[in-house]
């Protein structure tokens, strides 16, 4: 991967420039390269950095959603992951199955939705679930489905970018994008070479302030379309680019914590457990836990997080400090519900969610700009699908689902 924008022929007009090489941008670059689109993907940091939302080696993928729209979308996502894995020759997913339980998860209703979509599944009562997974505790019936597991997010980003590069995509890392503005027949994307920007000046044509690199230069790249896949940084970009048509995003700092397994051989499916009445162990928001077998970073461990409870922040002002109160809540949870784990946390990480009020994604065009949202804390499992969707929007072969349109997300009151 190059971090030298000097390698780009500044006279070229790209079919698209992707801003951001997290899961969404990397998968978009892969899908665009596969379709022969002249593409550049640009990130301010190196792959695997911990400032955004895609770092680490584990994200849950699963078929269960309390909404038939997303159940159907998980089928398309599975097809897209298969294509990416076949194309890169890299296994990105590990199938462990998944269990949903708790009174507010409503396993019976979820089972109906899986049945409607012909997704294999099994309902167990609490006693049978406890016998099957003696290292977990259940207070309600549980829904198990095998077509679920753990996605290696870091590996997905690196593999998608490597494949994109071999398909001719220009990948530029440690290269901040400093401005996106209209040109005559294209968009101009300005990048500050050599990493951190060092100062502000006025653009010679527009007079607009722009950030310049160490050597005082900022390099203009031209593209017919620009895909804004800047994760939590989209929140700051979009009002500038779209004004009142910008979708409303809330960025929160979340944390995930690893706990060691007592028995390395235990079978740990991914877990979603919801019980809003358990304010005693989870605080006033109630219990909303997700857990999965940890990835390469922590063998024989389970990674656990709370879906809610994040502190509102921004991509640039977040402090990256893991909330000790959340860790305490997770220790209490492990103590009561996961006796197969040692309740001694290690390797805690912070990460950013960027949510819409409805938790639907935003993937839509605004003229030559395509907004590719960071997907409300549940987007990793759809990244390969979203990459293919965006590429198909550019070739004219596809359009986003109605639920992802910009107009549906401009006001918190619309959904
Ligand atoms: C704790 C946590 C747990 C999660 N668990 C799951 C899960 O189990 N299952 C699931 O499906 N999803 C999960 N998610 C959600 C999923 O990880 C996100 O939806 C996804 O990673 C978002 O990817 P992204 O590419 O949109 O954003 P990011 O990964 O943040 O990527 C955006 C990129 O844009 C770059 N960028 C921004 N501004 C500029 C600029 N000016 N110039 C150049 N580059 C720029 C950034 O450097 C960054 O690399 C989880 C998220 C978190 C935080």
Task: Please render the helix and strand layout as text.
Layout: E1 13-19, H1 23-34, E2 39-42, E3 59-61, H2 68-88, E4 93-95, E5 98-101, H3 107-116, E6 122-124, H4 126-132, E7 142-145, E8 149-151, H5 153-166, E9 170-172, E10 177-182, E11 187-191, E12 199-202, E13 209-212, E14 219-228, H6 234-242, E15 250-260, E16 270-275, H7 279-282, E17 287-293, E18 301-306, E19 311-313, H8 324-337, E20 346-355, E21 363-366, E22 369-372, H9 383-395
Helix pairs in contact: 1-5, 1-9, 2-9
Flavin-adenine dinucleotide binds next to helix 1, strand 3, strand 15 and strand 20.
Notes on the structure:
- The protein has 415 residues and is an alpha+beta fold.
- It folds into two domains: 5-55 and 156-246 and 358-409, FAD/NAD(P)-binding domain (3-Layer(bba) Sandwich); 96-148 and 250-355, D-Amino Acid Oxidase, Chain A, domain 2 (2-Layer Sandwich), CATH 3.30.9.
- It is built from nine helices and 22 strands.
- It has helices spanning 23-34, 68-88, 107-116, 126-132, 153-166, 234-242, 279-282, 324-337, 383-395, and strands at residues 13-19, 39-42, 59-61, 93-95, 98-101, 122-124, 142-145, 149-151, 170-172, 177-182, 187-191, 199-202, 209-212, 219-228, 250-260, 270-275, 287-293, 301-306, 311-313, 346-355, 363-366, 369-372.
- A hairpin with a 2-residue loop joins strand 21 (363-366) and strand 22.
- Helix 1 (23-34) runs parallel beside helix 5, helix 1 crosses helix 9 (383-395) and helix 2 (68-88) packs across helix 9 (383-395).
- It is globular.
- Mean pLDDT is 90; it is low at 2-8, 196-204, 206-214 and 411-415.
């Amino acid at each position: 991967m190059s971090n030298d924008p000097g390698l780009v022929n500044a006279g070229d007009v790209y079919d698209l420039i992707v801003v951001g090489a997290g899961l969404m941008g990397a998968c978009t670059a892969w899908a665009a390269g596969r379709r022969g689109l002249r593409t550049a993907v640009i990130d301010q940091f190196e792959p695997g950095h911990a400032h955004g939302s895609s770092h680490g080696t584990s994200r849950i993928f699963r078929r269960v959603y309390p909404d038939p729209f997303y159940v159907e979308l998980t089928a398309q996502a599975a097809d897209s992951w298969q294509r990416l894995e076949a194309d890169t020759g890299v296994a990105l997913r590990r199938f462990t199955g998944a269990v949903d339980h708790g009174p507010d998860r409503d396993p019976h209703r979820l089972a109906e939705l899986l049945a409607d979509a012909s997704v294999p599944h099994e309902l167990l009562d609490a006693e049978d679930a406890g016998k099957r997974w003696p290292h977990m505790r259940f207070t309600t019936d549980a829904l198990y489905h095998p077509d679920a597991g753990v996605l290696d997010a870091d590996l997905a980003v690196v593999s998608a970018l490597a494949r994109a590069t071999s398909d001719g995509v220009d990948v530029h890392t440690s290269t901040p994008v400093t401005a996106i503005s209209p040109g005559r027949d294209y968009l101009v994307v300005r990048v500050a070479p050599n990493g951190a920007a060092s100062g502000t000046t006025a653009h010679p044509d527009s007079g607009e302030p722009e950030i310049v690199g160490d050597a005082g230069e900022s390099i203009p790249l031209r593209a017919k379309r620009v895909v804004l896949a800047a994760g939590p940084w989209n929140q700051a970009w979009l009002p500038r680019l779209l004004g009142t048509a910008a979708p409303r995003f809330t960025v929160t700092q979340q944390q995930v914590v690893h706990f060691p397994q007592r028995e390395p051989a235990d079978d740990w499916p991914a877990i979603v457990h919801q019980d809003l009445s358990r304010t005693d162990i989870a605080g006033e928001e109630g219990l909303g836990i997700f857990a999965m077998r940890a990835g390469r970073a922590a063998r024989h461990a389970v990674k656990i997080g709370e879906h809610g409870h994040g502190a509102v922040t921004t991509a640039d002002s977040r402090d990256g400090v893991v909330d000790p109160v959340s860790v305490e809540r997770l220790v209490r949870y492990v103590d009561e519900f996961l006796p197969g784990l040692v309740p001694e946390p290690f390797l805690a990480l912070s990460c950013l969610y960027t949510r819409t009020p409805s938790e639907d994604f935003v993937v839509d065009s605004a003229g030559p700009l395509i907004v590719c949202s960071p997907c409300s804390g549940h987007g990793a499992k759809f990244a390969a699908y979203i990459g293919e969707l965006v590429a198909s929007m550019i070739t004219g072969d596809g359009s986003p689902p109605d639920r992802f349109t910009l107009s549906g997300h401009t006001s918190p009151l619309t959904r």
